[in-house]
Structure formats: structure tokens, C-alpha cells
Amino acid sequence: MSETAFAMTGGRVAYDGKPVLRGIDLTVHTGEVVALLGANGSGKSTLVRALLGLTPLSGGSTLIYDRPPGRFRDWWRIGYVPQRLQVGGGVPATVREVVASGRIARQRRLRRTSAADRAAVAAALEAVRLSDRAGDPVQALSGGQQQRVLIARALAGEPDTYVMDEPTAGVDAETQRLLADTLAGLVLGGKTVVLVAHELGPLEPVITRGVVIGGGLIAHDGPPPRPEGECARPGHEHQHPHAAEPVAGPLTGWQGEPR
Ligand SMILES: Nc1ncnc2c1ncn2[C@@H]1O[C@H](COP(=O)(O)OP(=O)(O)OP(=O)(O)O)[C@@H](O)[C@H]1O
What does CATH list as the number for 4-222? Predict the structure, then answer.
């Protein structure tokens, strides 16, 4: 039977008194691959951070594997890919060091770096094709390459639950396909994935559920957008802005137009 990875009930977040999320009910079961969609500023990153307890709720509640974030202890289960790399000023971390930091939640239990840690870091670097840059300062990498470092850091922790905030932002088409293959492998292995996306592109086939945020609420929760299939169906009359674009095109039509 599937567990409940995340369960938010009536989740509200406000910044400086201005509501961004106005009552989110979202339950994610293990094995689901959920895409959070929505226009710029709709609150997708805020929702992801609130699910992890990184942004406090001003109302409602949220659980990670049945525990409030403050009482959740099994952080090794969660692989978080934030929207961008926060490199501490002046600290020249190498790519390998940043990726290895993804093992910390596990090392607390195992106490010191093991052969398993080294193997997991090497495998994660290889999965994002950055093995040859392992010794470089992470600041020397391009934005897209830094995004791959963040993905590798999450992979290195071998979590069972991935939370990715726009993992494909700024990465080229080949890397998107690489990530899609990596994700497909994780999904086959029964991992749970919640990801924020503006365009699903090659990720589309692995997504099992699309959740569209709009007006601070969930505007759609159901099958993921499948532009080609949906638009090709008999009786599908209206025009999407993306209708003339390839599958990898932006889902802008979707974001403002929940079914
Ligand atoms: N730390 C913060 N302080 C104040 N306002 C914030 C903060 N973080 C986000 N916001 C505001 O909350 C709203 C939602 O932002 P959020 O980043 O969650 O949206 P998003 O859907 O992820 O956007 P995008 O698609 O552009 O990444 C925006 O209006 C943003 O300006």
C-alpha cells in the first residue's frame, strides 16, 4: 500500500501580509510523479518550500510522511533541488563537494564517509555527465551546469522522494533528455517526485499528475497536460497557444487554462 509522502490541508502562506497561497489541499502518495504548474509568481516555489517546512504556513497544516516538518527526522528520504544554487560567498566549493553534501543526511546515521558514499557521489556525477568537472569550483560552471550539480546533489543522497524546483530551468535540450531518462529510472524504482515546471518537455511521459496553481489555489489537479494527445482528440475544439509548438513547447496555454 502506498504511503503518504506529503499532505497539506488548507495550506496558507502570506508574505508581508499579502496572501500567496490561500488554502491548498494537496496529498502526494508514494510513487506519484507530480508536476506543479502555473504562471510566474503563482506560488509554485512557495508551495514546494512550504511542503518541506522551509516556508512557514500562516494557516492550515502540512505533513511529511505523517509528521509535521518540525518533527520529521528522516531527511535522508528527501532530495530537494532548489531553484538555484546558493553558493556561500567566498567559499570555493568544488563540484564534488557540493554533490557529496547530498550525503550528509545519510552520513549522520553512518557517521563517516564510506565507500558507499563515494560510489553514490560518483554515480550522481556520471548521471548528470559532470564527472570530468568534479574538481572544478562550482562557481566556474555555467548556470545550466550548476543546475545539474544540484540535481546530482539530490541523486547522491539516494532519497526515495524528490522535490525539484524547476530542475530543467536553463538546461539545454540534451540535458533535459538526460534528466528525463534519469527521472524515468527513478520512477521505475518506485521513487516519488514532485517537480515544478514551466515546460515539461521530455519529462512529460514520466509525469503522472498535473497540479496547476492559480489565484493562490489549486486550479486543476488531475491528468498531466498532454498537448498533442488532448488536442488531437475528437471534440477538442478550443485552440491552445502552444498548439502549433512541438511537445517540448511551453505550457503557457495550460497555466492559465485549467480544465
Ligand atoms: N521571500 C519572499 N518575500 C516576499 N515575497 C515573496 C517571497 N518569495 C516569493 N514571494 C512572492 O510570492 C509570489 C509567489 O512566488 P513564487 O516564487 O512562489 O512563485 P512561482 O510560481 O514559483 O514563480 P516562478 O514561476 O516565477 O518561479 C510572488 O509574487 C513573489 O514575488
Answer: 3.40.50.300
